[in-house]
Write a structure and sequence with these properties.
The protein has 293 residues and is of the alpha+beta class. It has two domains: 2-159 and 265-286, no CATH class; 162-261, no CATH class. It is 45% helix and 22% strand. It has a four-stranded antiparallel β-sheet, with no helix packed on it. A hairpin with a 5-residue loop joins strand 5 and strand 6 (205-216). The model is unreliable at 1-7 (pLDDT under 50).
């Protein structure tokens, strides 16, 4: 009897994986662009409502009650970890590479398994949160942190933008392109004042930077120096030094900038910090108490 129940639990945990394969065959890869604002907000509201309904019906539906326990998380976590390892081993490309596995973030089994894991974390957090005790703090922080980080990273990915803008010295530029060559106007204009290049003795680049002024559509003016790993932050955009005309070197007439915008990234960091705080609290609570003499 115990084996039969255990087998059923594994079968239930594998449902997202099997359903994901079927959806990949029928629907094709996940199209995250369809989840951009405000669709992702609507999906979040529906998800939270579904989690609330599952918790409310936990006494009537044994599946929902089971999802709040350790036995539900283990097989799901194993599947999620396995898929994540595969993602790390196989190069992820935009073009058609190895079928499915080379675009793991658009692979339905990967998405559904992590969604299942996210729901389990949320239900477990809710269950412990409503039974509020001090000793529950590490558990709640860890599981709720996982939920917040995954939700923000997945639903927010549709709103993330990565554009490339090329500005010539002394000329304003307000147009940028994405990886597919589509032209966008990000709501800011970049003026390139000066490009600087420092080289090693073998003439390989040591440091290259650009002095720029950024004017936004809402009237802000920001001046600064942009380097490869030192972006200038303006109106939610991070402006990175990305390239230059290598033929001219230090005399390059233009600079290439990478513009990155991720409005959900703060919530990803909040989720990560919650997990870290949960781990710290767990160590504090597990610390041995001093023995009274």
């Amino acid at each position: 009897m115990a084996r039969r129940i255990k087998l059923k639990m594994w079968q239930i945990a594998l449902l997202p994986l099997v359903a994901g394969v079927l959806m990949q065959v029928v629907l094709g890869p996940v199209r995250w662009e369809l989840f951009s604002w405000p669709v992702n907000l609507i999906v979040l509201i529906l998800l939270l409502s579904a989690i609330g309904a599952m918790y409310a019906l936990r006494k009537k539906v044994c599946l929902f009650e089971w999802m709040m326990h350790f036995g539900a998380a283990v097989p799901c976590l194993i599947c999620a970890a396995a898929l994540t390892i595969v993602m790390g081993l196989i190069p992820q490309v935009h073009e058609d590479g190895m079928p499915w596995l080379s675009q793991m973030l658009r692979f339905w089994p990967f998405v559904l398994v992590w969604t299942w894991m996210m729901i389990i974390s949320a239900l477990a957090s809710l269950n412990h949160l409503l039974r509020w005790k001090v000793k529950e703090i590490p558990f709640v922080l860890n599981h709720l942190g996982v939920f917040v980080a995954i939700v923000a990273a997945t639903l927010g990915s549709a709103d993330m933008q990565s554009l490339q803008l090329t500005a010539f010295t002394g000329e304003p530029e307000w147009r940028a392109v994405d990886d597919e060559g589509t032209v966008f106007e990000p709501g800011l204009t970049i003026y390139l004042h000066k490009f600087t290049l420092e080289e090693y003795e073998d003439h390989s680049p040591k440091r290259f930077a650009s002095e720029i002024t950024v004017c936004t559509d809402d009237g802000k003016t920001v001046r600064g120096t942009v380097e490869v790993n030192r972006p200038l932050k303006v109106n939610g955009w991070k402006i990175y030094q990305y390239g230059y005309d290598v033929q001219y070197g230090a005399e390059s007439p233009y600079s290439v900038f990478k513009l990155v915008r991720d409005p959900w990234i703060l919530w990803v960091y909040i989720g990560i910090f919650m997990m870290i705080a949960g781990a710290v609290c767990l160590m504090l609570f597990m610390a041995p108490k001093p023995v009274k003499e």
